[in-house]
Amino acid sequence: MMTPVILAGGAGTRLWPLSRHQRPKQFLSLLDDAPLLAATLARLEGLDHAPPIVICHEDHRFLAAEQLRRAGVADATLLLEPEGRGTAPAIALAALLVQRRDERHSLVVLPADHCILDRAAFQASLARALVLAEQGWLTTLGVVPDRAETGYGYVRPGAPLSEGGRRVAAFVEKPDAATAEALLAEGECCWNSGLFVLRPDVYLDELARLEPAILDACRRAMTAASLDRDFLRPGAEAFCSSPDRSIDVAVMECTARAATVPLAAGWSDIGSWQALWEALPHDADGNALRGEVRCAASRNLLVHAEGQLVATLGVENLAIVTTADAVLVADRRRGQELRQLVDRLTVEGRAEVAQHATVHRPWGRYRILEAGPGYQVKHLTVKPGARLSRQYHRHRAEHWVVVGGTARVTLDDEAVSLAATQSIDIPVGRVHCLANPGPGDLELIEVQSGDYLGEDDIVRLDDRYGRE
Description:
30 strands, about 25% helix, about 35% strand
């Protein structure tokens, strides 16, 4: 038996503007209609495993919960990190949780933002890694390379083990081009995938020996953990005191128990526009296109168009990505440098780094249609049976117009129902609540006016989703 541990806490800045802090790439549908998180779980179909542990940031809890619900995964444990501290502490939390449950399972650690095209080949390599893990090896799946790649670290295999596995002779950091060519020429080195199979007790023993401060912080965090609805929250103060380390640096590069099993399954971490282009199907000119796109005399493009037509003429090797509020035009082969651009936008305080024009909430979503000095117009979509918090605003008034469905509005202690074309005013300081009692989505236009329109001008008095 195994317990899948899905790491869904990354920021995904190298795929901006599709990936944002509030909706990073693991929650996006980049390859088909399924979000990468759902595809990661689907990769385990047909295998005998315990309910998965999904580790994500506190800010993404409702997003993760909704995607798990849509994927039909009702028994997962959502383990919330108050802040990212690297993969070593995250995996330690999962190992401690499995030990607490007295489950003698190996952990199968899967980043939620990877692509694996050949599920059967993946499961075959996983089965071999599970045997090695049961023997006490901390096992990583090493991707058989098809080119010299500077964007990945490498694993150099050593002495043979059972199941076609090898001891790890060395981990090699992301190399320069010449070193990557030399590693490929060796014929045995593999890319470091970030996929691990390990027994909790073995991992925790090695962590205690190599990084005791991480283990101590995680033990204290799990002792102070609290269950909130469907979410398991480790103690924030204890967890945040942990050193920030990856499992590679904290354990795998230092342990004598590291093993590797080869993986040849069409793997990619989709860590750049180049990697996404490679993973997508191409037309006869090598273009990977999504959305309304027309190309003439253009080759080897990645074009992702949202909500508008994109036309190209006489260009090559570009990534062109359009969203409702941002456009990126870049040499797709220079994706590793995109982080520098995003860092610059962050310093400038650009909202486009943090969130999309459409913002998802546990009750549904909203999109900012127009904004200016003293006013803002939003389009709200409220899911059937959902309800916004009972709240008031100190600085803004609102006017709501129902354009589809039925709204149940409570203003102070008076409740009214509004149908399409009907509207209501929400004055500054008045306690109000909006709910959707109908079987379909409620569509509503909200016009805000006032001297301050920030999202932090919400005083919640009661919230069914546990938000402050």
